Amino acid sequence: MMLDLPEQLINFFDYIFFGFAIAAILSYIILAIISAFETVNYMKKNSFVNYTEILSSSISPSISIIAPAYNESLNIVENVRSLLSNHYVNYDVIIINDGSKDDTLEKLITAYDLVKVDYLINNQVATKPLRKGVFKSTNPAFEKLIVVDKENGGKADALNLGLNISTNKYVACIDVDCLLLEDSLQKMIKPFLEATNHKVIAAGGVIRIANSCIIKDGKLLDINFPKNRIVRGQILEYLRAFLLGRMAWSKLNGLLVISGAFGLFDKKIALEVGGYDTKTVGEDMEIIVRMRRHMEEKKVKYRVAYIPDPLCWTEAPDNYKIFISQRNRWTRGTIETLKKHKKIGFNPKYNSLGILSYPYWFLFERLAPILEVLGLFYFTLLIVTNNVVWDYAILFLIVAYLFTVLFSIITIIAEELTYHQYTKRGMGIQLIKTAFTEPILNHPFILYAAIKGNFDYYFNKSIKWGEMTRKGMSNN
Amino acid sequence: MLELLQNSVEALNNSHPIIQFCAYLSLLFILIIILLLVYLKNLRDRLRIKGRIEATYKKKYESDLIEYLYAGDDKNISLHQQKIIDYFKKNAENRLKRKLIIATFLKLKNEISGETSDAIQDLYYQTGLINSATSKLKSKKWDAVARAIRELTLFEIKEAHDEIILLINHPKKEVRNEIQKYLVKLFRFDGLKFLDVLENPLSEWDQIQLLEILNKFNNLEVPDMNKWLRSNNNSVLSFTLKLAKIYNQFGVKDEIIALFNHPNIDIRIEAINVVAHLGIYEAVAILKEDYFTRSLEEQIAFFKMMEEMAMPDDIPFIREHIEHDNFFIRISVMKTMNLITVDDDNTFKVNTAATDFTIDKDLTIAS
């Protein structure tokens, strides 16, 4: 069947999709080049840093690690032990038991000799009320630990209570099941202390995937490359994002997101903006955008810092169901944040935030999956109407595929030249194989999750966080 | 095959420019991918080999160094020692090997002390490694300069002082920081004279590092800080306030009190914290006098100070703030009232027993 689709219409769509693809490729290349320069610069500068001096200093600033826990009974004792073993001198750990239905609290009470204490809480941000109260250990070895039991209100609500409880100047908001490396806090605090002509409002580090790695007593003993293809794809995806993406955004002072798994904040600014938004599922991105917006409106020179060192290891979804659920949530979080702060988009009043970061996120994060699906529909229409120029269609797909592979290989080289974590024999080949298979095995599911996220956002408002089942990194 | 290729090229040349563009782009990507894969394989191999070479040489240099240290008498260099010196000299011509030799020397130098440590320092001179470091001080590359200064610091080369001090206002902060560490590590408090001429800010990070270096030395004579407390450089003020606090410098109290009126709020707050730590009672009256004109942060710092320094005469003033809007001021007021009335007339207890007394305006008592 050959239907006469107006030639102008075909041309219009052809140029839209072609133009978008070229713009995406160019933006990735530019970001990669900036990242490369910035990484070299960082490595050079960092080779002069002695982190041990700040470790033992009694005047090093105080940090609270805030870790919400919900039904984490399986690994909570190990996870808290890991958090308590950080080498930084001046910190405490605040575990917020967010209305767990299992025996998370009881396990903590038993393992760490906790007793209920009177504690004055500065209610600067409204949260769900306490349930059983605040607990501290009778054992001096665990004096840094504070456990708070509250009614369930979600991750953002739990983090807000942590902000209220903390008496320290800086707060590190983390996922309780993350493995923080022992020197992570001094590396994260460095940009805050180094700044002299601007204010650092938040800092984020690199998150690495710990599936199949050997972890014992809260320490990373051996790095392995997992067999699971979904996890392998995510390893490459994380490397791309952290090594070639965020480093460039950091240089451009355009970071819009700090991973919820591990971020350090200036508590005063976080409280000034009202803490985490409990109405969004993308609270980690939303608070950064709000803090940046706040600083822009106050006309104060500021930065959101980024540390390219691997500081935090986390468990990634290892099956498509949970993987899709996670990406669905990320999509909804992005939509909610961009919508809530649409005022800053394309607005020169907000400097690079308004004219660079927001438009980039809007085009290449928010619209990209929609355009991709529209492209697929359009392609199907062309097939049905027998209007496909096959040479062009096939070459277009080949270019897109080859660019993805090329970009992943550049990422692997960047990893080798910088942190060189996957050192074992055979891992190089596995990484390369993943670069070739990931666009086929993982990308369709990411696209599906993004579209489902859009659908759920507009038509299924009741969905909130979605499921994330942890196996526990210590069991690997 | 050739014909097929020719036909394809011909077809491509006759096709739409976008198709041509995509085809050439694909070929370019394929070519780059192949090249990068070869490079990656080579890189991984090289990194592995480099690791092995480093381990081998490290072991060799360690044993050579130990051999050198125990091969001669105290006064003269033996023939065998000279051979080892020549060997190190020759190896130091290679960048990687020089790096390994220096690392080996430093590792052992840090593990031992006394004559053996001095012998390693002598070896640093004899192998000419010092010349390579001092010549780098003139390098145009900032990282080479910083690395050289670090090396000279670790080998405690005081003779390089005059050359290094010329770089004190170097445009790169990493270089400045290495110089500051050199000065303080080798010349203790005397090294802090750079504060007199420092034009750039000394970051909080740098300050902590310098204080930690000073902290490692005992019985140091603390220099006069008055001049630094009048500095136009706010970071110098901030650093000096920390020094005054750590080394309990009551002698500079007038200069510190003068900073209560400094234009920078952070300096004013730091000054209040220091007088609180030093227990300078005359500061209480001064701060009370213009308390209401001060910022909230200063008021919080003032009440924090009062937790340690309030006297019974201050009770009426403190009591005025018992229902202050700010959480931290209320907490400080409560603590202070408790402390100063507990042995006196139990005023606070009487007050808290009153029916209209509230402390939980926007705070929760978690119990």
Structure description:
The complex is a heterodimer of chains A (476) and B (367). Chain A is α/β, with parallel strands linked by helices and 476 residues long. Chain A has helices spanning 7-46, 51-55, 76-84, 104-112, 155-165, 184-194, 229-251, 267-272, 283-298, 320-340, 351-366, 368-384, 390-418, 427-441, 443-459, and strands at 63-69, 91-98, 114-117, 119-122, 130-137, 145-150, 170-174, 179-180, 199-209, 214-216, 219-222, 262-266, 302-314. Chain A has one domain (1-48, 178-476). Helix content of chain A is 51%, strand content 17%. In chain A, helix 7 packs across helix 13 (390-418), helix 7 packs across helix 14 (427-441) and helix 9 packs parallel to helix 10. Chain A is globular. Chain A starts with 6 loop residues before the first helix and ends in a 17-residue tail after the last helix. The model of chain A has no long low-confidence stretch (mean pLDDT 92). With 367 residues, chain B is mainly alpha-helical. Among the domains of chain B are: 139-216; 222-291, Leucine-rich Repeat Variant; 310-367, no CATH class. Chain B is built from 19 helices and 1 strand. In chain B, helix 6 (129-136) packs across helix 7. The radius of gyration of chain B is 33 Å and the shape is flat. The relative contact order of chain B is 0.04. The interface between A and B is large, with 55 and 50 residues.
